[in-house]
Amino acid sequence: MRFTYTLPSRKALPAYKAGGFISARHTDGSRCPSRKVxxxxxPSSNWECVFVDDLGAPAQxxxxxxxxxxxxxxxxxHAGFPTILEVGCICAGHMEGDYLRxxxxxxxxxxxxxxxxxxxxxxxxxxxxxxxxxxxxxGYRVTIFKGGxxxxxxxxxxxxxKLFAKxxxxxxxxxxxxxxxxxxxxxxKPR
Length: 191
Ligand SMILES: [Zn+2]
Prior knowledge:
The chain is of the alpha+beta class. The chain has two domains: about 5-110, no CATH class; about 120-190, no CATH class. About 25% of the residues lie in helices and about 25% in strands. It has helices spanning about 35-40, 90-95, 100-120, 170-190, and strands at about 5, 50-55, 60, 70, 70-75, 85, 125, 135, 140-145, 150-155, 160-165. The strands form three sheets. Strands 7-8-9-10-11 form a five-stranded antiparallel β-sheet, with helices on one face. Helix 2 runs antiparallel to helix 3 (about 100-120). The longest helix has 20 residues, at about 100-120. It is elongated and about 60 Å long. The site of zinc ion has 8 residues, from helix 2.
């Protein structure tokens, strides 16, 4: 299952600077086998990450080096380049000139992935007055309920604002995982 973050801040991208293009070498100095890199007229700096997501398993090639299979995808945007490139952590760090920032993003996703795995089985799940599975966590109250043969859920925040699941799910487990994704979205949506 795929879940995503949108980064909260999105400052204006710096204007494209002519002259600098991505080198055909990786940060470790090894030569990049991709023909596109270095000849594809890709800016070498000033890329910005606009989005990261977790594919659940290594499932696609990094679009920059085209050698690394990636699970955590950094979506990189540049004012002087027409498309967003989906790349791995090392390439992202290279493109934005700040490896630590890319690594921090990736670590956050990894942490969320392991939290997500544990989430349906947390001891904090209780039963609501109506007999539905319920949990209070991360500042939200989540209730999972059955409508007909399918499962759904609602996330309630501190201001009593409700976010209902947009879809119904075959299993209670799937509905719980969807609620976790909902919370991640609430915590990371642009403000
Ligand atoms: Zn790469």
